[in-house]
Design a protein that fits this description.
The structure is a single chain. Helices cover 15% and strands 43% of the residues. The protein is of the alpha+beta class. The longest helix is centred in the last third of the chain and has 9 residues. It is globular. The N terminus and C terminus are likely disordered.
Length: 230
């Protein structure tokens, strides 16, 4: 029996982080607050007598009612917000030209119904509010608000760009593990060097129908891999 919890959305900044700034210095008027494309890098350092590090780059696309971001090199997450505020989610697998579609009820059943602001901003207002604000600092993408503190026993540091409502940097230290994300590039969505991900022409499967498709090699393969692909 396949455990379909493996197909639950990978939401939240810490999930991405399980996955300095030669960026363009663009003002808020040029970028706009909603419609942007950005390139981030996740850096993980395991602190020990023989330190190990791992880096991974991923892209984010954001418009008023759609957010997409890469998860490793195999899949893309995409959220849609309808006019009534309800949020749906797709997990896109470009190499296999397949997409798993989740309606809002699926997300609630999985206890994965997202906070839209956290999806669009990568960090929630609650997380920022639990940190201590220090003096602003200058980054390659503009002036950033500087936050530090602890959340749940984990040390946090955030460089927050209020004009575009995204972090320039987030760093956490939990024991011997240091994880950070760094903004490398940011562009207006209309001029982005990477097209917004599309699943046009892909074979779609509803999340609710996965149980009827256990024999499908695609379903078996990704249930076996789970979220470890990122």
């Amino acid at each position: 029996m396949i455990d379909f919890k493996f197909f639950a959305p990978i939401s939240g900044l810490l999930a991405l982080m399980c996955v300095i700034l030669p960026a363009h210095d663009l003002g808020a008027e040029e970028l706009g607050q909603s419609k942007i494309a950005a390139l981030y890098e996740t850096r993980v350092i395991q602190i020990s007598h023989r330190p190990k590090s791992q880096n991974n780059q991923w892209r984010l696309w954001r418009s008023d009612d759609l957010v997409a971001r890469e998860v490793g090199d195999q899949s893309i997450e995409r959220w849609h917000r309808a006019s009534n505020g309800e949020i749906a989610y797709d997990r896109i697998f470009p190499q296999e030209k397949r997409v798993i579609e989740y309606v809002p009820g699926d997300l609630r059943a999985l206890q994965s119904y997202p906070d839209w602001l956290e999806v669009t901003q990568l960090i929630s207002a609650d997380q920022l509010n639990r940190l201590r604000r220090l003096e602003n600092i200058q980054t390659a993408v503009g002036e950033a608000e500087h936050y530090q503190g602890q959340i749940g026993g984990v040390d946090w540091e955030v460089h927050w760009l209020p004009e575009v409502k995204l972090p320039a940097m987030v760093r956490t230290v939990n024991g011997a593990r240091e994880t950070s994300i760094h903004l490398l590039e940011i562009h207006p969505l209309a001029n982005a060097p990477w097209p917004v991900p599309s699943s046009r022409g892909y074979e779609a499967i509803d999340y609710a129908d996965l149980g009827d498709n256990e024999a499908d090699p695609f379903v078996q393969r990704h249930a076996q891999h789970g979220h470890h692909e990122h």
